[in-house]
Amino acid sequence: MLYEEKPVAGVLLMCSAVFFFTLIDSSAKWLALIGFVPLQVTFIRYLGHFLTSLAFFLPKEGITIFVSERPQLQFLRAIILMVGTFFNFLALNYLPLNVTIAIFFASPLVVTILSIPILHEKVQVRQILAVLFGFGGVLIIIQPDEIGFRYEMIYSLIALLCASMYFILTRMVAGKDRNSTSQIYSSLVPTLFLLPFIFDNWIWPDNWRDFLIMGLMGLAATLGHSFTTIAHRLAKASSLAPVIYVQLVFMTVLSWFIFGDLPTSTIALGTLIIIFSGLYVFRLENTFTKES
Asked: What is the pLDDT of residue 96?
């Protein structure tokens, strides 16, 4: 399977993926607020991802979805994704949300830099500067200077590195395996790994709404990671990395509608900077592709 350089389609798919990632976070926050422990929420997220992936791909493609040309790489990708999720939840137990977000949203810069030695991608200096500019918009929104350094920030740094490597590995497997195979590996491996640890902390939902939210989280995971895999087949990792900033826009809107958190003027300013940064990187990628 070869790469197809279609940056426009890749960016649009990545924007869709980021929206579904926001649904995952919103669902997880809802479940946490009503009393479900992080370990159970993490397990439900991967179990739901696995079951919906089976429902989508097994009837059409059969058991071939379990066959990978790069099984070791798929296994590593799944483990890294799971570890990143775990440490992100762990960090949220100790740090303010704006601090963990500030650290996580450095991932586009890390992906852009790592894509040079690992994927041998050509990255323009203007691309790196645009990513830094977008990250400045993130800092304006979250204002992470409210507390000093704490050792728990190491948890968020681990989550940051895992998220960045996940996107790099996604680019690597996207040209080898089908999307269905990538979804099965990235959901089945964490589900089996977490299964022995969730029994002592398991809480059954007591109404249909909680079951619905759990199902939504699994469906959003399948769609989000599917779109991510396809997007990385169509565009370079360094070009898609800044799209993650769009999650702040989706997060702001959903926080407003679901949790009643109204956006402020600071959020509006930071969001405009993020959008401008993403559009500039998008323009650079189009120009670079046409000149190549």
From this structure: 61
Q: Give the integer Cα–Cα distance in Å for 133 and 92.
A: 26
Determine phi and psi for 269, rounding to 5 degrees: -65, -50
Neighbouring CB atoms inside 10 A of 70's CB total 18
Minimal CA–CA distance to 239: which of 175, 286, 186?
Answer: 286
What's residue 2's pLDDT?
Answer: 44
How far apart, in whole angstroms, are the C-alpha atoms of residue 45 and residue 215?
9
Is the Cβ–Cβ distance between 232 and 169 less than 8 Å?
A: no
Give, for 242, the enclosing helix (H) or strand (E).
none
Compute the distance between CA of residue 57 and CA of residue 183 in angstroms, rounded to an integer: 9
Instruction: Give the span between the Cα atoms of 188 and 48, in whole angstroms.
Output: 10
Those residues whose C-beta lies under 8 Å from the C-beta of residue 138, and which sit 6 or more positions away, are 101, 102, 105, 245, 248, 270, 274
Q: pTM here?
A: 0.72
**Six-digit token pair at 165?**
């490597």
**Which residue has tokens 């990545």?**
14
Q: Identify the DSSP state of 115.
A: T
